[in-house]
Fold each of these.
Amino acid sequence: MKHVSIQNESPCECCGLIPLASGMKSSPRLVARSGAMKEGLRRASRFAASDAPVVVLGETGAGKEVLARVLHTNSARGGKSFVAINVAAIPAELLESELFGHGKGAFTGAGGVRRGLFEEADGGTLFLDEIAEMPLSMQVKLLRVLQDGEVRRVGENRPFSVDVRIVCATHRDLSALVGDGTFREDLYYRLKVLTLRVPPLRERTEDIMELASEFLRTSEDPVDGFTEAAKECLLKHRWPGNVRELHNAVRHGLALATSSKIDVCDLPDEVQNGTASLVHNAQESPELRSLKEVEMKHILYVLKACDGSQAQAADVLGIGRSTLWRKIKQYRESST
Ligand SMILES: Nc1ncnc2c1ncn2[C@@H]1O[C@H](COP(=O)(O)OP(=O)(O)OP(=O)(O)O)[C@@H](O)[C@H]1O
Ligand SMILES: [Mg+2]
């Protein structure tokens, strides 16, 4: 659970938002140099004035939680808690008591009363990350809370009211999930009152060097920049893992740098090569690679950029999770 409080920051010139959200561990400053990101912030500043639910859409690692935190910090609820939960990370059977709390003896092991995250977030914002992964049985319970403004702890009969703004995020196409029956249509329309879209990093190249420099600045390493060739690599890369992948690449560079500037050879292999040069090398190589090999190399690269999450990797690759799982299994079998 993470809490955020307002900081004494001067508002951003472009959108009037307070750009800094304390409690952000890895990057204390919000970077928005590109027109696309500035537009996102302008939207967020207007949504901060409202109390309606918000859905934040965007690829993995693009900055959905960052934007949700900025939205909260700049809203009237900014002085209260920002409580974040990754719905996909909690086992389905624990999600209800996590969100709504439980009474004493509600189930085996429930020794005492426990407050749920709705209670923790009372007066503030509850950020439901990876909302698309919420089991259908929980979706109906969430819908009821949104309709009634009341929660009931597991194992207790008495409901009580809570005042929570819901902001949720997903990297998936929620309307498609409604279409195939895995996301409730009524909940979809309840949540999707306001929509914020975080553009992928490859569509806002102006942010790349600014972010990379910010990550360097906060690293406490003596390294103070990038060689021209390294900058070129960073700007050309497609960043399927977005800002998180860029941050990892800078960490990689910092770990290997032997001078005051990060060079190309200090960057991760996939950033050095880029998919374009991967194809180029394959064509030039006397040992031409099979499509399967190139495919597997790309799958492994995307998996790495998604921190090993098969669900997110499948999404970036545009294939089903079971297809991805089958391909990895085939690859493992053929390489043993
Ligand atoms: N505009 C930005 N300025 C500074 N840091 C950023 C920015 N956007 C993202 N980051 C950093 O990049 C990382 C990923 O951001 P965040 O967790 O918000 O992404 P996300 O879209 O919620 O990812 P996921 O889909 O995996 O949940 C975090 O460490 C965050 O601090
Ligand atoms: Mg997130």
Amino acid sequence: MSDQQVFEASPESKSKAKQLRIFAMLAWIIAIGAQIYAIIKLISNETMVWLIVAIVVILILAVTGSYLWKKANRLDPASEKDKVKFFIQNQLGAIMGVLAFLPLVILIFTNKDLDGKTKGIAGSIAVVAMLVAGISGVDFNPPSVEKYTKEINEQNATLKDLNVNSDNVYWTSAGNKYHIFEDCYHIDGKTNVTNGSVKLSFEQRGISELCKTCKSKAEKTSSITE
Ligand SMILES: [Zn+2]
């Protein structure tokens, strides 16, 4: 098992990621639509309350879009080789988060018909919403094909040290750890337990961590046999 394994997203992961990306795009499109509506209809002293409601709605949509987008990237990550594509794919949530508010923010502060109170309240809420949407869209630890490949090979090496066969580990469709033992209490009796190689656990779920319970059990077992 010394040969290097290269990560490649499974067809199921790719189609799930595609679905998540479509929903993310929809959320962002509706957010931009809501922003356009707010710009046309709601920038006035009389409709300030509705303007604030619109800002909250846009924020929820922008954050939801980013959340789905990041989830998709974990299933089907970009390669670091293409730096521009890598940056845009991973930070699109931040870009969309800012775009969902920036025109509105500018138009609130430059509108001559708004009084100072409306500008102060609605404007500052819009700025805060823009910051929240932008920052929550940033992927501070973006996944990549290269990172996953490195992780898989590190995990394989760890399992080899423990005298464990890395082609037969277990994981559930909900967890983010994989297990060495089928009867580990974290997964015992659970439905949706899948088994396969560590590489497959990454390709299907983006799983990166060995369960600590399984690890210490394997450490004990391997020290007895040595
Ligand atoms: Zn376990």
